[in-house]
Design brief:
Elements lengths: L8 H20 L9 E3 L7 H10 L4 E4 L7 H4 L6 E6 L2 H15 L6 E4 L5 E2 L7 H6 L1 H12 L7 E4 L5 H9 L4 E3 L2 H4 L8 H9 L5 E5 L5 E5 L2 H8 L23 H9 L8 E2 L13 H9 L1
Parallel strand pairs: 1-2, 2-3, 3-4, 4-6, 6-7
Antiparallel strand pairs: 5-9, 8-9, 9-10
């Protein structure tokens, strides 16, 4: 939404990131027992360090980080009170991060976020691993819980396919301390995505949920659109490169993921990438956030 995004993407992103954090903190400042304001910053971002530093400067309470192992994150938030939460897809990844952070920075994660293969957007698995990873989803929750049990104050947050109360209860029963939901809240009155984006969720059938390769080779889950059909048929050469992801080479990329996501966010679903979790087809109406929380916690 910044006017100079296409000519000055790094500065535009930093400016927008700071503004969004400040607006969010201002919105909740008078609310008793308010929660944390957090941002998710991908390790694969070309300007990762600058984005983390901008978030800290803007007063964010917590940084969640995945799309790679955020081994340098503790050093980027030192001398601040910002909580740091890595996203992992296995107990092995959790162990690697804990070992690295402890050795280099004498710091452990403030929480671990385990994102399973039914999540929306980029997935931390190869496409051929998805089925097996889902089969062992609850086993992995227990393995990660065991890996972090000696850490003090390090809750395990579980995400990916959590949609109704029974999903929450099952995750908690296997050792999760908390859950993260994304897809369920897209079709709410409060969600500020374009109405066409919400409508794509409401119109989706189970068979419309597809896994496509991102330009950096990892699978991503989205709702089938004319755009995803074209991507499956062949390359859509990027018109311009904003140099957003380190591993992406525009001259080889099958399409520009930034432009595809921007198109969808602005309501151009036909030319856009509508990321969603595996349960998007279950959305049948626009709800209020408070009603979802009542249902999940009843």
């Amino acid at each position: 939404n910044e006017p100079d995004f296409y000519t000055n993407p790094k500065e535009a992103n930093i400016r927008a990131l700071k503004r969004n954090i400040k607006e969010a903190k201002e919105a909740v400042k008078d609310i008793p027992e308010k929660g944390l304001i957090a941002v998710n910053i991908m390790c694969a971002s070309r300007n990762y360090d600058e984005f983390v530093e901008a978030a800290v400067e803007a007063g964010v309470d917590m940084i969640i980080s995945g799309a790679g192992l955020p081994t340098a994150l503790p050093g980027l938030v030192k001398n601040s009170r910002v909580k740091i939460v890595p996203i992992v897809s296995s107990a092995r990844a959790a162990a690697l991060i804990i070992k690295s952070w402890t050795k280099k920075y004498n710091r452990v994660p403030d929480a671990i976020l385990f994102e399973g293969p039914l999540a929306g957007g980029h997935l931390g698995f190869k496409e051929e691993q998805l089925e097996d990873a889902q089969e062992h989803f609850y086993e992995t929750i227990m393995e990660i819980k065991e890996e972090i049990e000696e850490l003090q104050d390090c809750p395990l947050i579980v995400a990916g396919g959590i949609y109704i109360k029974e999903d929450v209860q099952k995750a908690l029963a296997y050792g999760a301390d908390a859950v993260q939901l994304g897809t369920r809240f897209v079709t709410t009155e409060e969600c500020d995505v374009h109405p066409s984006f919400k409508q794509a969720y409401l119109d989706a059938r189970e068979e419309d949920l597809v896994v496509i390769k991102s330009p950096v080779g990892m699978p991503g889950r989205a709702i089938r659109t004319p755009f995803t059909d074209r991507v499956e048929d062949g390359r859509i050469p990027p018109e311009k490169c904003n140099r957003c992801l380190i591993p992406c080479k525009s001259e080889e990329a099958p399409y520009c993921i930034t432009q595809a996501l921007i198109n969808a966010a602005k309501g151009d679903v036909e030319h856009g990438l509508v990321f969603s979790g595996s349960n998007a087809y279950r959305a049948t109406k626009i709800e209020k956030v408070v009603d979802i929380f009542r249902e999940l916690t009843s």
